Amino acid sequence: MTQTVQHDDRNQVKADSKTAEAQTMSIAGVDPELGFGGGETQVLGLTLALAAGGHRAELICDPAGRLWEQATAAGLRCHPIRIRNAIDLAAGVKLRAILKRERYDVVHFHTSRAHSMAPLARGFGSTLVVTRRMDYRPNRVFAPYLFNRAVDSVVAISGGVADSLAAAGVDRARVTVVHSGVDCEHFRPPTSDERADARGALGISDTDFVISAVGALEQRKGHRYLIEAIGAIAASGKFKCFIGGQGSIHKVLQGEIAVIRGLERIKLLGRIDDTRELLWASDVFAMPSLKEGLGVAALEAMASALPVVASEVGGLREVVEDGRSGIVVPPANAGAIAAAIRRLAESAELRSQMSAAARARAVENYSMETMAARTLALYRECVRKTRGERGEVA
User: Fold this and answer.
1) For residue 166, what are the domain limits?
2) Of 83, 234, 288, 347, which shows the fewest CB atoms inside 10 Å?
3) CB-based burial label for 197 (10 Å; 0-12, 13-18, 19+)
């Protein structure tokens, strides 16, 4: 049965680590990606929270990547590594040298390319942890070895991700669900002036009803169904849709917008480094994904007090409470998306109720502090267990 670490004290990271010097931990996160997506947001947020709690928290990442840029700007110590692919033995040698020199208590591998280096880190005295963020089934040949034997524990960011791991042959007893977190102080409801400024910057009038979406412009994110939905309801009100993100199907989506003659109603905004103002300008957030590990963008929207229209896939089924904090719809169903948006547009009272519920749910269950505290609890348990198995004093 999948374990879910239950620690509700959001100050646990600071309180536990400051009790005594002996309780502090040294932790390295490995994330070699060049871009900065939802996963990197989690890695940076976790590392900063651990460092703020008095732990030695560092990153091993690509010096040409945006994670390195943002982490070093935030004062974190980073060690350079470039991982070209899953069989990059030179990167493995470099990683082993870093781990031998730095002697971390925990090494946490955060992405697929990072996962491939985990077997090379065995034997260096560290507890090894990996995080799985995607809800599609991993390779059935490699997954059992990596997740069952090469590392000490597996973090799944949702029950849906845990299910996909089990389907690939991973022992459920080795999997702990730790939901992703968001900065609920940064992502918060806007003041009336902040909302007016955000809408003004996008040319939104007081009578426009705004739907926003944020995510990579890839097939799995289901943006085409949102575009189709906006086209279906365009005649029934002043709807505008803003989609943030970049990806391989940008031109395809632009063409679909042109087909429905929606160029004035639907805008592709490209990459957005901070989505807060877009969320502040919005009335509803849409996440029409076909697959989704959890949906950090939906969490950010909820923390900003927006109702969410979400596909019934992956971790989104856990995040959005249908009829309470948003509306859950079948995947790949433009008609259902259109009906949900229309329902929210027609009832200010319903939007208000769902907005309050969304904010409360994000703060209570998905704050960055809660995620960091639960991850730290897992680290402590893993270190205790692995040291016990080696006959060391925990």
Assistant:
1) 3-181+367-389
2) 347
3) middle
